[in-house]
Amino acid sequence: MNFGQAIELLKDRKRVARAGWNGKGMYLGLCEGGGWRDSHRTQDFIYMKTANDTIVPWLASQTDMLAEDWERVQ
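Now predict its structure.
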């Protein structure tokens, strides 16, 4: 699937990944905002679950945005 389709799945609280990623178990998810951090309200953001089992904020590269190898992760 393309990046736009992957984003729509993220909005539906599904997980996605690229077939070309070589890190085992890596995927993207959507972290819901609405909480508070340091007196500021949080917003939704996309995170990556890394191969090291950590969660980090994620930004798409141009390669990611143009890729057609996005897949839904169960």
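The chain has a mean pLDDT of 95.
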